Amino acid sequence: MKMRLATWAAAALMAASPVMADLVFPSLDYRTGPYAANGIPLADGYQDYFNMLNERDGGIGGVMTRVLSCETGYNTEKGVECYESTKGEGSLVYQPYSTGITYQLIPKATADDIPIHSMGYGRTSAKNGKVFSHVFNYPGSYWDAASIAVKHIIDVSGGDVSDKKIALVYHNSAYGKEPIRTLEELSKKHGFELTLLAVDHPGQEQKSQWLQIRRERPDFVLMWGWGVMNQVAIQEAANIRFPMENFIGVWWSGSENDVLPVGEAANGYKALALSSPGMDYGVYDDLKTYIYDKGLAAGNGDQMGTVLYNRALYAAMLAAEAAKIAQEIHGVADITPGMMRDGMEALDMSDARMEELGFAGFAPAFKVSCENHGGSGKGAVQQWDASAKTWTLITDFIESDKSIIDPLIAEDSAAFAAENNIEERCN
Amino acid sequence: MLYREAGDFSTTYPQDSQTFPIRFDRYRYYAVLFIAICVIPFVINDYWVNSIFMPFLIYSIAAIGLNILVGYCGQVSLGTGGFMAVGAYACYKLMTSFPEVSMFIHVILAGGITAAVGVLFGLPSLRIKGFYLAVATLAAQFFLVWMFNKVSWFYNYSASGQINAPERDTFGILITGPNTEAWATYLFCLIFTIASAVIARNLTRGAMGRQWMAIRDMDIAAEIIGVNPLKAKLTAFAVSSFFVGVSGALFFAVYLGAVEVGEVFGITKSFLVLFMIIIGGLGSIFGCFAGAAFLVLLPVALKVVGADMLGWPTDIVAHLNLVIVGGLIVIFLIAEPHGLAQLWRVTKEKLRLWPFPH
């Protein structure tokens, strides 16, 4: 009898422990709701890249990858449900593409020893790896973006902005409020006047904000928008004949879906970019051979080459690379989320490595370290050509103003550390 | 056969007026309580508590609160989301100002603050009725959300405007923050849910509840027979807002942990809770639970069946979810306008006669 009980216990234990047969990359995506236009290319790109790795290389380090989709609709409650339902499957890294969900997951995932990669969004002070052990926001953050946009404005105004007025049109949420503090500091430093205009979720109603812009005539308008808000803002800007070359969106407000509905009037609209646009990269040859031609493309298969699809490929590539480094560090193929975190912290994206992976000239090189989870913080400015329907980079990758950003990051992360009794790491 | 009064004699008045006069019903109620308190905490895990039980329990409290106002007192309110936000932000300010105080006290105080705010916004109900009152409470909804977004004192001047629940405990057991145990948060919410239901049930069948119902059924007649409309309406607003505030505090502190007011406590939340009590049944405590269960569990169930078991694309499942939930709401309202509670009542009547219906 005792014998049989032990056998049962062993069998139960084996059944209970998950079979680690694949590397799970959860994708908390949103193909529905007011943010779907931006969520679909992100979800497609992420899935296609991992499927391509499976088809071409048989996964990462010999272990197949699996993308686990969960629809959040950009809603934080559903985000929590998705996190809880996917974390048990050995999920390696979460990329929620929502600042609200990221904020929610930062403490939870840290407690569960699962890393988060909020690529160019989320909590900016997560760049400080001393406080945020499990959160990464390489290659750039909102505060970098604000600084890069202002640098570009200074550049096109001939070096002096002390008599200029800059308005910020932002999504009235954690996401949109993030850059305000940096912009206020920058306005003190450079002497420009800053106007803040909040747009409430989901952002279909912006008449009053643009009326105010029309009345106050700012020289430049910056935008922190997402989803349907972007299209509406660009349309409203066109309606009041605001000069498009003086209208600059963050890298989340600069995709094809945002400008195409506005047509010709969107010509000249500028946005920041984390990477180069277009399809002239080696990785697209592999995607074509292994995915598109075989009919394996995710979704409708019509998003390739768009800004956000490229960004998702970039995100997937960085995740796959971190997984590979984690396998090398720990010498096992079946890595755990904790090992994945170590891999992300040791990530080194050199130009040579990018070229090997088929991303030559796609984005600037950067390195992640224990202290710096934010990468290089570089971004470029791209401009929309409405007749050719293409984005073109009009600047090099610009370095952000670290003298403004670093003290802010130190301050904000110290506040978080004090609130949550976190001891600094990396000493 | 099982469900009947025969042989069940009441010899005292309290026995006669108890909530569950039928023995079978009473034992079923004890069994549910026993399972909820003594069995579920031992088997529950993070997924079940965060995806199913916690939203169900917290929405039940909100539905009880709104049902007192709409179902029992007849004052239509669209401000539930705003009042939940008051509870959440009150709880946040209390948690950060008095970290050493037990979470129980914070949540109850948050309810009390919401009650005060509710009374304030209930004042117009003395002059306006029906749709006009709905519009006035709608104003409360938008004003409160705007205020929590605008005034940075409420979110302790954080850069993002979000509020994050720090780690707090009660009797040394962590209740908020990321390192909580599933059973602890579950039991914490369960205690509040059971207490809310018991208090609401007893309030509604006492003198106060009868006054509310008199006002609901015909306010002029109620006034003539001696019901003070000022007192009745304002107490309804206060009690209702108290429960809604408690649910908002739990929603933020225990369930989500981080909240952005515009998204979490927007107008959609007000409608969601209103749908819960309409589907569940106006003027019924059981209806609150049934409605909350219906609107919390159905989407999760559809997702599990569609996306996880059948492997359909997640966007199709999400769209189907909207279609099915919406369709069911319409069907319910046509087939059973008094909600799930009425279905339950009819079932009980049938059970009483079964197996020999006349």
Describe it.
The complex is a heterodimer of chains A (427) and B (358). Chain A has 427 residues and is an alpha/beta fold. Chain A contains 15 helices and 14 strands. In chain A, the strands form four sheets. In chain A, strands 5, 6, 7, 8, 9, 12, 13 and 14 form an eight-stranded mixed sheet that branches. Chain A has a two-stranded parallel ribbon with strand order 1-2. The longest helix of chain A is centred in the last third of the chain and has 24 residues. The radius of gyration of chain A is 22 Å and the shape is globular. Chain B is globular. The mean pLDDT of chain B is 90. Chain B has 358 residues and is mostly helical. The longest helix of chain B has 28 residues. Chain B contains 15 helices and four strands. The interface between A and B is large, with 43 and 37 residues.
Q: Would you summarize the structure shown here?
A:
The complex is a heterodimer of chains A (427) and B (358). Chain A is an alpha/beta fold and 427 residues long. Chain A contains 15 helices and 14 strands.
Proportion of residues in β-strands of chain A = 5-15%
How large is the radius of gyration of chain B? Answer: 21 Å
* Spatial separation of the terminal alpha carbons of chain B: 14 Å
Shape of chain A: globular
Largest contact between chains: A-B, 43 and 37 residues
What key phrases describe this protein's structure?
heterodimer; A: 427 residues; alpha/beta; eight-stranded mixed β-sheet; two-stranded parallel ribbon; 15 helices; 14 strands; 15% strand; disordered N terminus; B: 358 residues; mainly alpha; two-stranded antiparallel sheet; 72% helix
Layout of helices and strands:
The complex is a heterodimer of chains A (427) and B (358).
Chain A: H1 2-16, E1 23-29, H2 36-57, E2 65-71, H3 76-87, H4 99-112, E3 116-117, E4 135-136, H5 142-156, E5 165-171, H6 174-177, H7 180-190, E6 193-199, H8 207-216, E7 220-224, H9 228-239, E8 247-249, H10 256-259, E9 270-273, H11 282-292, H12 307-330, H13 337-345, E10 348-349, H14 351-356, E11 366-367, E12 378-385, E13 390-393, E14 398-399, H15 402-420
Parallel strand pairs in A: 1-2, 3-4, 5-6, 5-7, 7-8, 8-9
Antiparallel strand pairs in A: 9-12, 10-11, 12-13, 12-14
Helix pairs in contact in A: 2-11, 2-12, 3-4, 5-7, 12-13
Chain B: H1 13-16, H2 23-43, H3 46-72, H4 80-97, H5 103-122, H6 130-150, E1 163-164, E2 169-170, E3 173-174, H7 182-204, H8 207-217, H9 219-224, H10 229-256, E4 258-259, H11 261-264, H12 267-280, H13 285-309, H14 314-335, H15 339-353
Helix pairs in contact in B: 2-7, 3-7, 3-10, 3-12, 3-13, 4-5, 4-6, 4-10, 5-10, 7-10, 8-10, 12-13, 12-15, 13-14, 13-15
